[in-house]
Design goal:
Elements: H1 19-30, E1 34-35, H2 36-39, H3 45-50, E2 55-58, H4 84-95, E3 99-104, H5 115-128, E4 133-137, H6 145-153, E5 158-160, H7 167-173, H8 179-192, E6 197-204, H9 210-222, E7 227-232, H10 249-261, E8 266-269, H11 279-288
Parallel strand pairs: 2-3, 3-4, 4-5, 5-6, 6-7, 7-8
Antiparallel strand pairs: 1-2
C-alpha cells in the first residue's frame, strides 16, 4: 500500500479472488451498489466477501468532506438516487443476509444529510427480511438532530458512529467534524432508543498516546456507548495523514482489556479490525450479555 512503511507480518492478507468474492462483486455491480469495502480499500475485503458479508455504502461514492485518513473520493455529488433503498433491500434479500451493515459518504449539501435514504434502506430491508438486523454506520449529519431522529425512528438494531481518533488528533484529521458533536450524536441515539445498541470505532497510529485512547474510551462510555472497535490506521497514500507507528497484536489485546474493564459490552480490537468487521458476531456477543 502506497505512502507507508513496510507492513509488519500481522497486517499481511491474501489477495481476494475466491468464488464467493467474485459472485458478490458481480451482484453488487449489477445492482449499481457501492461498498465501503472497495471505496475505502479495506484489507478485509477478501475474507468478508468470501463469507458473503459486505458493508453497503449508500448515497453515492463522492464525499463532501476530505478527512485526511480516508481513501473515499472527495468532491461535489451531483445526484440523489431515490431508488437505491429498494435495490439495496433486494440485494440483501437475494444474499439471504441475517445482518446488514449500511454506511454512507457525507452529503453535507443535503438538508438532512441523507437521513431519509438511510431510513428508507432500513425500512425496505425489514419489510423484505423481518428477521434481518440492520446496523447503520452514520455520519454526524452536521449536528442535525432531526435527521438523527429520522434514522432512529426507522429502527436500526445497531446505531454506529465512529469517533475515529482522540480529541487532540481529531481536528487535524477531521477538519469538518467535531469530537463533542460525535459524542452528542451517540448520547442522543441512546436517548432515542434506550434499549437499542450504540457503537463506535477508532483507529490507532495517528500520533495518539495510550492515555488519550483511554480518555476517548471513557468519553464513549460516558454517553453509554455499548460496542467499540479499535483497528490500525493504514495510510492510503502519501497525501494522507502520516502514520505514527504500528501497534502490535499484544497491544491491541491490552486495549481490548482496558475497554471491557470500562464497561463496554464488547470490544473488537486488532490490527485488521474495522468498524463493521464481523459486525454480526459483535452484536450477538453484546446481546448475549444483555444489551
Amino acid at each position: 500500500m502506497a505512502g507507508q512503511r513496510r507492513l509488519p507480518s500481522w497486517l499481511k492478507v491474501r489477495m481476494p479472488g475466491g468464488p464467493n468474492y467474485l459472485e458478490l462483486r458481480e451482484r453488487l455491480r449489477g445492482a449499481q451498489l457501492h461498498t465501503v469495502c472497495e471505496e475505502a480499500r479495506c484489507p478485509n475485503i477478501g475474507e468478508c466477501w468470501e463469507r458473503k458479508t459486505a458493508t453497503f455504502m449508500i448515497l453515492g461514492d463522492i464525499c463532501t468532506r476530505a478527512c485526511s485518513y480516508c481513501a473515499v473520493t472527495t468532491g461535489t455529488p451531483q445526484t440523489l438516487d431515490l431508488g437505491e433503498p429498494v435495490r439495496l433491500a433486494e440485494t440483501v434479500e437475494r444474499m439471504g443476509l441475517e445482518y446488514a451493515v449500511i454506511t454512507s459518504v457525507n452529503r453535507d449539501e443535503l438538508t438532512d444529510g441523507g437521513a431519509f435514504i438511510f431510513a428508507e434502506c432500513i425500512r425496505q430491508i425489514h419489510k423484505r427480511l423481518p428477521n434481518c438486523k440492520v446496523e447503520t454506520l452514520i455520519p454526524d449529519f452536521d449536528g442535525n438532530w432531526d435527521a438523527l431522529e429520522r434514522v432512529m425512528e426507522a429502527g436500526p438494531e445497531t446505531l454506529n458512529h465512529n469517533i475515529e481518533t482522540v480529541r487532540r488528533v481529531f481536528s487535524r484529521v477531521r477538519a469538518k467534524g467535531d469530537y463533542d458533536r460525535s459524542l452528542e450524536l451517540l448520547r442522543r441515539a441512546k436517548q432515542l432508543a434506550p434499549y437499542g445498541v450504540t457503537k463506535s470505532g477508532m483507529m490507532v497510529g495517528l500520533g495518539e498516546t495510550r492515555n488519550e485512547i483511554a480518555e476517548t474510551m471513557a468519553d464513549l462510555r460516558a454517553v453509554d456507548c455499548d460496542l467499540l472497535t479499535i483497528g490500525q490506521y493504514l495510510r492510503p497514500s502519501d497525501k494522507h495523514a502520516p502514520l505514527s507507528r504500528w501497534y502490535t497484536p499484544d497491544e491491541f489485546e491490552e486495549l481490548r482489556e482496558v475497554g471491557e474493564s470500562m464497561g463496554f459490552r464488547h470490544v473488537a480490537s486488532g490490527p485488521l479490525v474495522r468498524s463493521s468487521y464481523h459486525a454480526d458476531e459483535q452484536h450477538k456477543s453484546a446481546s448475549a450479555v444483555g444489551v
